[in-house]
Description:
It is built from eight helices and 13 strands. The chain is of the alpha/beta class.
Amino acid sequence: MSATTKKLITKSLLEDGNSRFKVTYELTGSSYTSFQLIDEMTQDTKTFDQFSTHYENLTIIDSIMSGIGRKPQTDFYQIVIKPVLNFSNIKHEYLKTESADSIETFAKRLKTNQNYTIIFLSGDTSISELVNNLPVLIDETTKIRKFIKIVPIAMGSANALANSIGLGNPIETFDNFLHGMKRTTAFPLYKVIFPNEKQIIFFIIFSMGFHANLLHLCTLDPKYSSLGVERFQLASTEILDNYDLNLKLEIKLAKKTIVSQFAYFALINTPNLEEKYIPSPQ
Length: 282
């Protein structure tokens, strides 16, 4: 097995003439293992209203157990986001997940007559927890539907949404946000209704068999969850060697019903499951 490579990279933030921050970060394999914010601005060059864009109900949700977790050197919010937003006069709220139901509680208390912009420092799971617990955002007085804008900053074990819309680099994503996010992308949501009438909303993947077990291991088993993309290869070996993957499914389509045995069943809604993992079933 080849050794994991380490890279030290520096990128600019808030670049405009001579006014800018820089972020130096260490990339170990596919994991961001340290961040450092460098303030190169002088009192003569600081313009505090330069990037004071208004965001309605801007909230940062920091899923502190996602990815490799948050250590003093990997705390992207404290090291980069907080000082830059304060400098830019951008008001925001910060939610650090304290328990498994932190995001569910947050979602259920959102006001239905207001718009929100939510930055996620997480993977896909935290975003899923939000969309599966949202109230219907309609102003009861005006009957106008309200909106939530989601900015995924890829800090989790699985970052399919961010990678699929070109937001795989946390520093570049945050810089794009500061400059107004020049483009938006529709958020495709699908509902699954189970035979017992339980419902879930998904936007990345709905799977059973091999892939479902792979996600379970890579997300919840500490042996794998702290690794980079290599965790998928290691966990796959364990599943193929030790798991029973003979799954019988009945799939009802519009014009026919398929009954068959499956080892791998997945409905995939994004082009990328990781930055360089583009599933292409044949």
